[in-house]
Target: 3-hydroxyacyl-CoA dehydrogenase NAD-binding domain-containing protein
Amino acid sequence: MSAEYQVNGAVAVITLANPPVNGLGLATRTAAVAGIRQALADDAVKAIVITGAGKAFSGGADIKEFNSPKALTEPTLHTLINVVEQSTKPVVAAIHSVCMGGGLELALGCNYRVAAPGAQMALPEVKLGILPGAGGTQRLPRVLGLEMALNMIVSGTPVASEKLAGTALFDEVIAPGADLLAAAVAFATKVGDVRPLPKVRERKVDYPNHEAFLQFSRNTVKAMSGPFPAPLKCVDAVAAAVTMKFDEGLKYERELFMQLVQSPESKALRHAFFAERVASKVPDVPADTPVRTIASAAIVGAGTMGGGIAMNFANAGIPVTLLETKQEALDKGLATIRKNYENTVKKGKLTQDKAEQRIALVSGTLAYADIAQADIVIEAVFEELGVKETVFRQLDAVMKPGAILASNTSTLDLDKIAAFTQRPQDVVGTHFFSPANVMKLLEIVRGKETGKDVLATALALSKKLKKTGVVSGVCDGFIGNRMIEQYSRQAGFLLEEGCLPEQVDKAVEKFGFAMGPFRMGDLAGNDIGWAIRKRRYVEKPEVTYSKTADLLCELGRYGQKTGAGWYDYKPGDRKAYASEQVNAMIVQHSADIGVARRKISDQEIVERLVYALVNEGARILEEGIALRASDIDMVYLTGYGFPLFRGGPMFYADTVGLPNVLDTIAGYAKGRHGEAWTPAPLLVKLAGEGKGFNS
Ligand code: 3HC
Ligand code: NAI
Model:
């Protein structure tokens, strides 16, 4: 059973009990329907209360059932809501904590609703690429009015129950701390004999001149929804609440729901929803692994990354000390943090008071003794093993026992770094992405000796800092940068063979990337990749690269920071203008290496860049560097601007079909630089078995 039945005086109480959030899966629906029928058959029962056990009334339809026949097995959510609405005895929803999606739709099918303050009320289906499909688009406007209901449905944003007190959504919002169930049972007892039973479906939506409002809404939503079809369909469905009879509107809503649930965009969003949650689970680090307390932090290096990382701690209310070797560098780092907060205040995203509170949590020092008591220290100094060695030997000497020693290295061997200390079990990689105070991704690098409690603490910390933590094993570049290396290599070869930066960027941005590789290079600094390549020319001479990026750097064109990169820039303007100098350099380079430039299609550009990611992702998966394909997808969705509506590179490859991906790769393997296209054994295996990375 996943709903419990109890009789309390003359009131039957049905408690949804499907942890963690009382998702309305088949077993819960079946038990709830059985509860209603039992209450109807019992003459001693005058009224019914539906409530939820634990930390939710209900989080809605069970998303895990969407791809299974269970979703359509009777009693469906529609049937459950019908049974509730047709009940001849009054049904009261007792709402607390979370009342979302199908949960809110169920509550709207009840005759009355009593809520605790602080309950999050939402129809968040749009965030999963669908729309409320069990009457939400028809019933919510009938209790909240057209405008407020449309806002909630199109945005999916939760509204606190107390803010909706006084609307027809609630018959009562109880006082803070009062007993919800007792209040709901008292309410049900009071209305036990009241007839006729109020029904939301019988209410009308009155909105003068609704056509103009709906047209305005369509225009606004269309402009904001990008490649996602759901928001506009939400407007269509809500419009039906005004223009159609209730049952017709319900039917129309259903049709739109069925279209959306099959859409690739919705599948991608649902994949991302579960991928984000599963990423924090590590098979040999169970959920009850003890975690260390993180009440204070220190950062070594107050440069680009150190400052941003410190802001994350301050934003989470954790005091943080930055350590530098020179006062000048420290002052510069602290000033940058202050400036960043001031800019956020100017943009209206933070109050002055809050900014000051956060700034007050950040301090600076030149002395290791001042950071010795920190619970975690994150090193963010230059990317050179020698510098890391100096820092970690000092940290090992001064940090209190039990402190976590973390490195923000983006490419170096974490095991070597751990070996500089006498406590490798306390060493972990925390690889933030730039700008560290903005980007959601945190790659958590697990060294061969990293303690399980240290890993569990890093995962818990990522949640506290509002990051998406993804665990990576140790390899050059970890998950994200190791893959981007192959993508960048292809981008370079494309230039040699006939493309110009603008064409490559445009093609990839049309595919949905936030930014193409060359605009990205100009933003991040082309000198960073140059330094990495120089190291690789020595360490891995067998790996081939186009020389175009080196020639660019030799011209001093490091990107926006030098006012020129792959593109030209005007002072104070981030807009990229095609550069005659760079384009001429690229064409000349092709001639110098004897390559006849050809016209390259956008399809080829996208395939070469994206499949380069996929192929390397497959190796990373096979080597166990990533625990699962969906972790790789999360890295790319949250750290590299991969289009969300495509679900990440591995999910995208699954949708294309791995045999198709493999065929295309085989084609490129016959071309120039075919050595870059040796298919990953896992890709070959899965394609042969008719499987996907995620299935
Ligand atoms: N179905 C199934 N599982 C769900 C779920 C749902 N609707 N909502 C959450 N879960 C699961 C999560 O997968 C996670 O599982 P795990 O512990 O195995 O990883 C667990 O519940 C806890 O989730 P969170 O980590 O997100 O917990 P939080 O406390 O941070 O948040 C929440 C809880 C606000 C409910 C959040 O999970 C959420 O936003 N869920 C999605 C709600 C939603 O979109 N509902 C609409 C569903 S679609 C629908 O109802 C269709 C209908 O209109 C026909
Ligand atoms: P940066 O050059 O901006 O800052 C490094 C800072 O460390 C400087 O302020 C320098 O004075 C200080 N420093 C150097 N040696 C020190 C020492 N011994 N003790 C204390 N401070 C010292 O470098 P950035 O970009 O912040 O990179 C730092 C680390 O973060 C590197 O490992 C880099 O690979 C990594 N990283 C960088 C990203 C980026 O986009 N810049 C992204 C992710 C990781």
